[in-house]
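Worked example 3 (structure in, sequence out).
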């Protein structure tokens, strides 16, 4: 019984193991079937992706072939154009060679003709000598010497005639060439021109600002006119005041100071002095920057800082109503064009043109000839001798010693002489007003002198520590008498001598 049970257990176990094996086998088949499907799907995806990449590669190759074909056609067109140019050049060269051959043949014919003439001349001389020997009992040597003298005399006359002819031709050609160069320079440069005025008009936000500018008992306007050296005109014209002065630099500073005061709103003597000091420093920096920008534009670096600042200051100087900086830049451009036409040094001509009137930046402060002041400045800062010669030559103090100096002289005359460039009446007025200021400034203990009211009044500020009231009265009479003796003017000129004592202390 136990044996039967044991056998049954073994059989059951065997059946269980067999069933388990079959289940595992079926399960593994299904798993392998899924894996196979996944592998096939991935393979298909890879195949599709490879096909896409292949197609993209073919498209890129096709695009590259098209681009290469386009570049090839373009290059081919360039080569064709170059070939046509070379053919044209070759034709031109052949044409020139034909012309040269013709000229050479003509020259050879003329040489042959001259040789025949020389031979004929020698034959005629020999015949003449023989005739003279028979007719005048001359020896052969005497007849030959006589004929040679006559031939030499006749030849000398012909040579003189030829020389005069070619001298006249050279003169005419020189004049024609000079006119051509001037015309080229004038037509290739067309500068704008606007004459300098004697007044600046300042627009006010409202008419009540006029009263604030005048101040209590006129203190503000007196301080403004004393510090700025200008004439401030406040009339019934709505919304504006007028700043008048022949000195462009002082007028520009005054305009800027008043603009700042109006914008700020605080207008009193202390604030006026503070703003004036600030604006003066601002203008010093501004003139240097303007000069520096001009040199950068023209490519004329390096140059000494003082000369750069004075170039910028020429903007605030006028001559016969023509702005000095505008005139200077016009001379620079005209001189460059003419120097290029004549084969000179363009850069040196431009530098000489830029500095030819540099002395004018200081004449209103120093007085004297702008030529001498300019030469002294340029020598001091080791400028090129041609620059110094151009400064002297443009007013006839020396003869130009180079092409560059000559073109600067011509450009200066061309700039000044063109219609509308200058106004004589304005220059005479500014000279008269400047001379009035110079008379006052030449006196001892005078610190500042400003001509205002269109030259009909001059305000003279003296050192109060060194001059008393009685001396101030005498000084006003002395200045008035000297103005009467030296200056021609209409009407009368009022001389105000002002002395002011000021004590300043700080609470700490």
């Amino acid at each position: 019984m136990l044996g039967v049970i044991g056998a049954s257990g073994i059989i059951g176990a065997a059946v269980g193991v067999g069933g388990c094996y079959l289940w595992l086998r079926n399960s593994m088949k299904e798993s392998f079937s899924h894996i196979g499907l996944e592998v096939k799907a991935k393979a298909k995806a890879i195949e599709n992706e490879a096909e896409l990449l292949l197609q993209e590669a073919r498209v890129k190759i096709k695009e590259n072939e098209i681009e290469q074909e386009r570049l090839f056609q373009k290059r081919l067109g360039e080569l064709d154009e170059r070939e046509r140019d070379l053919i044209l050049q070759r034709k031109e060269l052949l044409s020139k060679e034909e012309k040269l051959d013709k000229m050479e043949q003509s020259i050879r014919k003329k040489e042959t003709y001259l040789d025949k003439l020389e031979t004929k001349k020698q034959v005629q001389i020999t015949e003449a000598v023989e005739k003279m020997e028979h007719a005048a009992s001359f020896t052969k040597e005497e007849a030959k010497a006589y004929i040679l003298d006559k031939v030499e005399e006749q030849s000398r006359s012909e040579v003189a005639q030829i020389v005069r002819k070619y001298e006249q031709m050279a003169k005419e050609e020189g004049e024609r060439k000079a006119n051509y160069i001037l015309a080229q320079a004038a037509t290739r440069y067309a500068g704008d021109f606007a004459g300098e005025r004697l007044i600046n008009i300042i627009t006010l936000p409202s008419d009540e600002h006029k009263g604030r500018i005048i101040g209590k008992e006129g203190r503000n306007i007196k301080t403004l006119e004393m510090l700025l050296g200008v004439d401030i005109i406040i009339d019934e014209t709505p919304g504006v005041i007028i700043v008048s002065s022949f000195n462009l630099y002082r007028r520009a500073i005054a305009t800027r100071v008043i603009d700042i005061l109006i914008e700020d709103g605080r207008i009193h003597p202390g604030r006026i002095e503070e703003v004036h000091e600030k604006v003066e420093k601002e203008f010093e920096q501004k003139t240097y920057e303007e000069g520096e920008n001009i040199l950068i534009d023209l490519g004329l670096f390096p140059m000494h800082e003082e000369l750069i600042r004075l170039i910028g200051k020429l903007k605030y100087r006028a001559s016969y109503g023509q702005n000095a900086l505008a005139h200077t830049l016009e001379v620079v451009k005209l001189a460059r064009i003419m120097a290029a036409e004549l084969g000179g040094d363009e850069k040196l001509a431009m530098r000489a043109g830029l500095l030819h009137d540099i002395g004018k930046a200081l004449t209103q402060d120093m007085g004297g000839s702008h030529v001498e002041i300019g030469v002294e400045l340029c020598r001091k800062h080791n400028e090129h001798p041609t620059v110094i010669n151009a400064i002297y030559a443009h007013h006839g103090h020396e003869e130009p010693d180079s092409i560059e100096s000559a073109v600067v002289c011509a450009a200066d005359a061309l700039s000044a002489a063109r219609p509308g460039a200058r106004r004589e009446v304005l220059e005479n007025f500014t000279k008269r007003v400047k001379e009035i200021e110079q008379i006052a400034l030449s006196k001892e203990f005078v610190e500042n002198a400003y001509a205002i009211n269109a030259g009909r009044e001059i305000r003279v500020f003296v050192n109060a520590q060194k001059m008393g009231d009685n001396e101030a009265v005498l000084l006003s009479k002395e200045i008035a008498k000297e103005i009467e003796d030296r200056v021609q003017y209409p009407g009368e000129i009022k001389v105000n001598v002002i002395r002011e004592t000021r004590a300043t202390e700080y609470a700490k």
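Notes: The radius of gyration is 49 Å. The domain at 194-282 is CATH 3.30.1370.10 (Ribosomal Protein S8; Chain: A, domain 1).
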